[in-house]
Amino acid sequence: MNERLKVHLALLFVSVLYGATFTIAKIVMPLYIKPFGFILMRVGVACVCIFIFHRLHVKEKITDRKDFIPLVISAIFGVAANMLLFFKGLAITTPINAAVLMLNTPIFVLIFAVILLKEKLTFLKVSGILIAAAGALLLIGGSQFSFDSTTAIGDLYVAINAVIYAFYLVYAKRLMVKYHPLTVTLYSFLFGFFMVLPFGLNQVLEVDFLHLPSLIWFCIAFITIGSTFLTYVLNAYALSHASSSLVGSYIYLQPVFAALIAVLAGKDLLTTQKVVSMMIVFCGVYLATFRKNVHY
Fold first, then answer.
1. Is 221 exposed, middle or buried (0-12, 13-18, 19+ CB in 10 A)?
2. Which of 20, 47, 48, 245 has the most other CB atoms within 10 Å of its CB?
3. C-alpha span between 281 and 133 (Å, rounded)
């Protein structure tokens, strides 16, 4: 299997995991675990998993002390601020508003990649991102979303998070050229854990772990291991072999898989509009990631 196909499969799997997260996370929060407590658990469990995997297969150390500052910055933008702002915003605004605002991420990835990494801005890349954005907007609500004073603070948190995560996808790429992706991810989560600890510790201590239903344990395992550990590791792998804008463009597939999973779970219906919207998203992502001669 060539490297290009591996990158696309990794990003596709990430989109599936994130798509399922919207449905599964709602089962747990806030009834069983409050948002910041859940974030602390996500970062903590993922950090342990990455550490074990890193020790078994990579065993790489940071060779230049100057790189610890960029790693701390990656932890702030890619783990701590990213997760805290998104979950706090989601608690205040509506899921549709949050999904719409997160569609800004690939656009900011493209902007940061052009400015910081000097990535080439092509007509196909820009057209693909705009087409995918249009399809995703139709898919996740069309005219059903609205921004007003009741959701303004939550909308602002999610919007800032979209910019922050976009910056991380571009900024971390430089580190992943120098070090193994797992090494960068490990230190980002290690520093990120201590950053989110003050916010989530009390909420974790409030959880009655002894009486959690089996379904909730499954959901916790999926979020902490599946949509945190695996997604960050796979995204790191993709970032080390492909452009930041390509990785960012796959975000538009997340609402597609979220809709499909909701249909399979019996919580939504597959309509003609949704099928058409999905096709538009796929076409947009294909255009944004298309290259005549790709070098990974």
1. exposed
2. 245
3. 7
Measured CA distances, 235 to 18, 35, 214, 240, 248 (Å) = 12, 23, 29, 9, 10
Q: Count the Cβ atoms, other than its own, within 10 Å of residue 171.
A: 18
Q: State how far the Cα of 280 lies from the Cα of 268, in Å rounded to an integer.
A: 20
Digits of tens for pLDDT over the chain (296 positions)?
A: 688 889 989 999 998 898 888 778 878 888 899 889 999 999 999 999 999 999 998 889 999 999 999 999 999 999 999 999 988 887 777 666 676 677 778 888 888 888 888 877 788 878 888 887 787 777 666 555 566 667 788 888 888 998 999 999 899 988 988 999 899 999 999 999 999 999 999 999 999 999 999 999 999 999 999 999 999 999 888 988 888 878 888 887 877 787 777 777 776 666 777 778 778 877 887 777 665 444 44
Q: Are 29 and 204 in contact (CB under 8 A)?
A: no
CA pair distance 189, 193, nearest whole angstrom: 6
